[in-house]
Structures are given as structure tokens and as C-alpha cells.
Amino acid sequence: MPDSAAKLKGVERAAILLLALGEADAAAILTHMGPKEVQELGLAMAGMTNVRTESMETVMRSFVETLQDQTSLGVDSDDYIRNVLTKALGADKAGGVIDRILLGRNSKGLEQLKWMDARSIAELIRLEHPQIIAIVLSFLDPDQAAEVLSVFPERVRPDIIMRIATLDGIQPAALQELDEILEKQFSGASNVKSSSLGGVKTAANILNLIEGSIESSIIEQVSSADQDLAQEIQDNMFVFENLIEVDDRGIQTLLREVASDQLMLALRGADEGLKEKIFKNMSKRAAEMLRDDLEAAAPARLSDVEAAQKEILSVTRRLADAGEIMLGGGGDDFV
After folding, report:
1. Nearest in space to 79 (alpha carbons), one of 92, 64, 94
2. Residue 190 in contact with residue 104, Cβ under 8 Å?
3. Model confidence over 206-238: pLDDT tens digits?
4. What's the sign of the alpha-carbon dihedral 241, 242, 244, 249?
5. Which pLDDT tens digit goes with each residue over 59-96?
6. Does 66 lie in the same domain as 130?
7. Which of these ranges, 97-106, 226-235, 247-256, 295-304, has the smallest mean pLDDT?
8. Which CB contacts under 8 angstroms, 24+ apart, belong to 78-86?
């Protein structure tokens, strides 16, 4: 737990609120959330030991104030729900919950894939046409899609990435049919909203989160087949070294979200320019300690360094999507 209630993150405030509500009400709320949200809230709740009275009162007072501000007669109920959930969970967490509550259009068959592990998903769709595989991976979150793509044989990965990159949305009827096919395997009904899936940015996001050697191999093979497409994908990727383009305030925001041991491991593979930027945005004492730790640390495996960098990139993208930092490199989404 943070030392001060003022330092509580959105997910920590939500965890405290759920703990205060009790098992039944907390469970009812969690049923409206996706797997990532449930996992992050569950981890936050599990880490809530010795919650200070100050923190509990701060969270409850904030929630009550939000209710009082938003429940006047004539208020737009959609705006009310958006405001309450955003304040309770933070902008990055609330988006998916808002979609599920306001749109009421969960894609049951496809949605259930988000609860499955990567190997199970790959096994489920491995015999499907590559275009179907591309659509399914486009529907998943980039980090989960990256895991699934890693499970597929090396020879088919470039084809899937190229199909994702050139996928220009999908007709609602086709998405409905795919959803129904998957739903038959899980049982139950389904109702799908039309959605824009795929594209160069989706392919780039998936490659951003895949293991380094696999990423390089895929890009090389895509380039052999379509050099322009490969270049477009690379132009939309945001790699660890691009952090040097983030402004100082953004770096400071990122550092508050990253564990020190993870940062130290990630910096093992960074150039001196990026290291100096990180040091500059830390307190003098913290920077000196990190320098000393880096110099004294034993050699680390490249795969471990790359994994730490991918984790930090995932946090970076989450903060960028929430509007908390601005990314200077990569595609238009990061400008």
C-alpha cells in the first residue's frame, strides 16, 4: 500500500471499495468486468494488507461525493455511469466496463477467448483459415494476441501478421457468424456489435509485445514478401529505445508505475542516452543507487532483459491510452 492516501492509484481505490462492499456486492460488480480487469483488481485486493483508516475514508468519501454530484434528477444516466466508473477505476480500466454496461453487446464466443490461455486458443483455431486466425488475434488484446502468435509455427506467423496488417475491418454479419461458430463450442447465445478490427497498427501492437527474436524473424519474412508493408508496420511500432522521445514529465509518470528491479533489468539492454534520460528524471539518490546496481549486477539473459522491456512498454502504452503520457515515437496513436 502507498504511504499516503493521495498516492492511491485507480485500481487500488477500486480494490479498497470492493473490499468495503463485501463479498456479494463485490462479486456482482466483477461479473461486469473483463479478464484483465478482474485479474488486476484481484491482485490489488490480494495486496491490500493493513489498509489505513485514512485510505479507506478517502476512497469512500470520494465515491460518496461522486454519487452526490452525479445523481441529481434529469442527469444523463450514460454520463453518470461513465463518470462514476472512470473515477473509481481510472480511465484506462473503465473503458471496457463502460462498453459492457452501456452497449450491452458482449461478443460471447469471442469474448470467452480472453479468459483462455494462449496455447488453448491456438489449439482451438489452429485448423482455421489464416484469415480467420488473423481476425481472432485482432479481436484479442495485443499482449494476449502476441502470446497466441508465439505458439503458432514459425512458418505461419508472417502470413498471419500480414493478414492482420491488411485487414480493413470486418462486416458485422461475418463477425456474427464467427462469433456463433465459437459460441457453439462454448454453448449459449451471442450478440455481436460491429467493430473495426485489424490494420497495420494492430499488427504493430502485437509485434511490440512478442519475444524479440520472434519479432525480428517475422519482420524479416514479411519484408521479403512485402517490403512496403513491413516498413509501415515498423513505423507504427514503439520499441524500448523510443522512450528517449518521451518528455520528462512522461518519464516521471512511467517511473512511478514500474518496479525498480524490472527497470534495472530492462536498462541492461538500453543505450547510454536512454539511461541518462531515466537517471535525469529520478531523485539524485535514486539515480546513484540505480547506477551502482547496474554496475554491480551479474550478467542477465537477453530474453529476460527483453521481457522486462516488453513489460515496461505495456505499461507505457496503457498510460498513453489513458492520456497520462504522450509518446513521441511510433504511429499516429502516439502523437
Report:
1. 94
2. no
3. 887 777 778 888 888 898 888 888 888 887 787
4. negative
5. 777 776 666 555 444 445 556 556 666 766 666 555 55
6. no
7. 97-106
8. 78/102
Q: Which long-range contacts (CB under 8 A, 24 or more apart) does 260-266 make?
A: 260/290, 262/308, 262/311, 262/312, 263/290, 263/308, 263/312, 264/290, 264/293, 264/294, 264/297, 265/300, 265/304, 265/305, 265/308, 266/240, 266/305, 266/308, 266/309, 266/311, 266/312
Helix residue ranges per DSSP H, 188-247? 200-208, 212-225, 227-235
CB count within 10 Å of CB 74 equals 4
What's the mean pLDDT when you consider all of the chain? 76
Residue 162: domain span: 109-235
Give the CA distances from residue 242 to residues 49, 118, 185, 239, in Å, rounded to whole numbers and listed in that order: 37, 28, 42, 5
Cell numbers representing residue 249 in the block? 514529465
**Closest to 316 measured CA to CA, from 264, 265, 241, 261:** 241
Q: 28 and 88, same structural domain?
A: yes
Verify that 118 and 208 share a domain, yes or no: yes
Give the Cα separation of 32 and 51 in Å (integer).
Answer: 25
What's the first-to-final CA gap in the chain, in angstroms? 33
Mean pLDDT, to the nearest integer, of 35-47? 77
